[in-house]
Amino acid sequence: MDNLETLIGSSTFIPEMDEENQENRNYESSINFDGYEIIDKIGTKHFKMVYLNLIDNIKGTDIRTQIGFCRKVLNRIIDVYEYEYMPTQKINSQQDVNAIYDLIEFLEYDHIEFFANIWTFLDDIEKVNLNTYCKKNIERILIEIEDQIDSNDFNELISIFLRTNNKENILRFVIKNSEEKKMLIKLRIMEKQ
Q1: In whole angstroms, what is the distance from residue 164 CA to residue 146 CA?
Q2: Scanning 37, 78, 99, 176, which has its CA 20 to 30 A from the CA of 70?
Q3: What residues have CB less than 8 Å from 114, skipping those under 6 apart?
Q4: What are the average pLDDT values for consecutive 10-residue runs of the chain, which has 193 residues?
């Protein structure tokens, strides 16, 4: 069932249901639709726009709804990022939920500073063929990533993702994001100099 069918099917008027229950059902349907839209966009260029437009609706719900959403996000991260070692994350509190929000934001768009810090110690991002350079210098990149983990205050899930993911997946993550955000990374490096 696609997202639109979920929204329409769950918000269909039921004559036997009183107005308050109908409104609650429509609200829950809308929240489910927002969650599906966000999860569906993980790993795509449209994620940030959709996420920033819809996440406040999810964050405004009760903790139980947010926990359910976060479990689905973790499953999608495993699929999209081919991440084999996602720890069995116990999601019991708002702090746990916020850690998952931080993780998905970091993976999808909130990582310019991280990549700028890495590329500061590597060759000029504009002057290298990123694919060739990263493959050739993977050990050096992994050292820089480890240094960034040690010197920054990443939440535990981000640190675990960066430390335990296999080399091929980290390499794909670095190449993809460095290529897509090359100019932003370069600008951030220049700002820091």
Answers
A1: 11
A2: 176
A3: 106, 148, 152
A4: 47 49 49 88 96 95 93 92 74 94 96 95 92 95 95 91 90 95 96 88
Q: What is the Cα–Cα distance from 54 to 39, expressed in whole angstroms?
A: 11
**Whole-number Å distance between alpha carbons of 135 and 178:** 13
- State the alpha helices, DSSP H only, in the chain: 3-11, 19-41, 47-59, 63-80, 94-108, 112-120, 130-136, 138-151, 156-164, 167-180, 182-192
**Token representation of residue 170:** 């980290």
Q: What is the pLDDT of residue 8?
A: 44
CB 26 within 8 A of CB 41: no
Q: Which two tokens stand for residue 2?
A: 């696609």
Query: pTM of the entire structure?
Result: 0.83
